Amino acid sequence: MSYSEPVRLTVRPISAAEHLAFVRTRGSVSFLQTPAWGRVKTEWRSESLGWYDDGGRLVGAGLVLHRPVPRLERYTLAYLAQGPAIDWSGRLDVWLGPLAEHLKARGAFAIRLGPPVRTDTWSAARVKEGIADQGVRRLTDLSGGRSDPVGAGVTGRLRDAGWLPRSPEDGFGAGQPQFTYELPLAGRTEDDLLRGMNQLWRRNLKKAAKEGVEVTADEVTAAEDLKAFHDLYVHTAERDRFTPRPLPYFATMFAELSAEAPERIRLYLARHQGELVAAAILVRVGTHAWYTYGASSTARREVRGSNACQWAMIRDSLAAGCEVYDLRGITSTLDADDPHVGLIQFKAGTGGQAVRYVGEWDLPLRPAIYRAFDLFMRRRGR
């Protein structure tokens, strides 16, 4: 719904059932904006908010996670990751003004949100050319992309209204990534998708099939399968030097998301001769599917279990009627000497496109507390 004329919207809490019903009326929203996600993030207080027009119709919704301020617990950072689900194409004051009023009254010292709006896209072919060009360092240096006027408009209107951009230059900060890699599925067949992959990806998929890699997927995940995934995930974290999440986090994630909708989350396990060689988690809301977590063994990498997992998730997303398969975050680097470039090279091999979103923005509601919180977080290096 677009509001080109001045209107008055009101914001008030809604139940999880009302929120979920609204989500189901849309093609898709981010899984980070579903009621179940608030129950996954147990360390934050969550609430579902709805926007109502003058006729009493629910026209927008969002999940807010409230993060307390250290030593000032009655004040919170109100965070709407990849949301809210509102009309971003027109005036924003009619949407964000009531949100700010409501959250300030509830004790928020600032709002942080990430509009689910694209600003630019670059094809896999252009990404490949950029990596080969020594004069190109970042996606934003790359010509030949497609710009989205809605995204440009949102960026300008947020800045004019006093919102502060939070996304770092590489787009990969403490919040949600500004740059992602996405594979469009709408109107395509499996053969179309295979033809769109690069030669290395197709060769790796043939290798996995020849080696007899078997991929299984379940909506209802047995405890032993989740433990097997987590063991491999911890192994991956040690090898790739990142901090893994604990097993109970994933148990909660599966319990809450699957309770909200049986098709919401699936665990994929790739085995070679009975040994687990790769694993991944797929989340789906409506027509959008996300690859959220992955793991792979250092041994038997030559059987290409990770490629087999990805292809199984892509095929299942296509069969489910999804329009987008989202491989999630990338950095903006195209520098062949940057260790992060391998991530975009792997994902670009699927075909698809690199995407830049508007990024995350803050609106200070209590400036002194916001400045103190920002200083605290900088000192923590986050």
Automatic annotation (TrEMBL):
Stated family: Belongs to the FemABX family.
Designated name of the protein: Aminoacyltransferase
Alphabetical keyword list: Acyltransferase, Cell shape, Cell wall biogenesis/degradation, Peptidoglycan synthesis, Transferase
Keyword Transferase: yes
Record SUPFAM superfamilies: Acyl-CoA N-acyltransferases (Nat)
Keyword Acyltransferase: yes
InterPro entries associated with the record: Acyl_CoA_acyltransferase, FEMABX, PG_Glycine_Bridge_Synth
